[in-house]
């Protein structure tokens, strides 16, 4: 499904109290800074042939951004060039400390992820008015089904900065593989084995 500004706004609202976004968005009232980062994540996902799951074009209740199992050697040269251009443009859109943090975070994600190909849940955002109704669990179930029905079946990895999410993910079959610190922010790295 195509993602638009309604989806970007939903993700921005869903992550406004997320520890990582709170940590690196200096001006908590600057919603545009969060949206710039989310737009970049969406562009990166598209260029790398990722998945975007949502239930509606104009009134979504959720948006999930998922990276497919991939090998960067299989990504077209044009996609790599476009991704590098987007990364360069990000330098002019976000403060340097945010970019430094994101670089550290990306290195940490890769170092704690499964060694074999896997799906990676980049973001799942549920509309704040729809939270607590089982939508997040339903969306994760859909992602798990995609990973299970792949040939071969793949594990699913994700990271969370919110400790209360760890037990939620564990109930859904994830295992806490590693806990890392970046500039004082704790990151919980989790994996759900292939079925």
UniProtKB/TrEMBL annotation:
Keywords linked to the UniProt accession: Transferase
The keyword Transferase appears for this protein: yes
Gene3D superfamilies: 3.40.630.30
Pfam families in alphabetical order: Acetyltransf_7
Keyword Acyltransferase: no
GO molecular function: acyltransferase activity, transferring groups other than amino-acyl groups
Domain N-acetyltransferase: 114-195
PANTHER family: GNAT FAMILY ACETYLTRANSFERASE, N-ACETYLTRANSFERASE DOMAIN-CONTAINING PROTEIN
Protein's UniProt name: Acetyltransferase (GNAT) family protein
Native organism: Saliterribacillus persicus
């Amino acid at each position: 499904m195509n993602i638009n500004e309604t989806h970007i706004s939903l993700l921005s609202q869903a992550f406004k109290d997320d520890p990582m976004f709170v940590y690196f968005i200096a001006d908590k009232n600057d919603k545009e800074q969060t949206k710039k980062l989310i737009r970049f994540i969406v562009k990166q996902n598209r260029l790398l042939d990722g998945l975007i799951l949502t239930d509606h074009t104009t009134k979504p209740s959720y948006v999930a951004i998922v990276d497919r199992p991939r090998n960067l050697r299989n990504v077209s040269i044009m996609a790599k060039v476009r991704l590098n251009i987007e990364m360069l443009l990000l330098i002019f859109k976000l403060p340097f400390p945010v970019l430094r943090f994101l670089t550290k975070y990306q290195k940490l994600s890769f170092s704690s992820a499964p060694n074999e190909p896997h799906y990676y849940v980049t973001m799942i955002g549920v509309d704040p008015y729809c939270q607590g109704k089982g939508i997040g669990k339903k969306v994760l179930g859909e992602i798990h089904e995609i990973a299970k029905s792949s040939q071969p079946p793949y594990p699913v990895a994700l990271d969370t900065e919110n400790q209360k999410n760890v037990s939620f993910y564990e109930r859904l079959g994830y295992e806490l593989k590693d806990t890392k610190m970046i500039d004082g922010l704790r990151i919980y790295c989790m994996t759900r084995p292939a079925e």
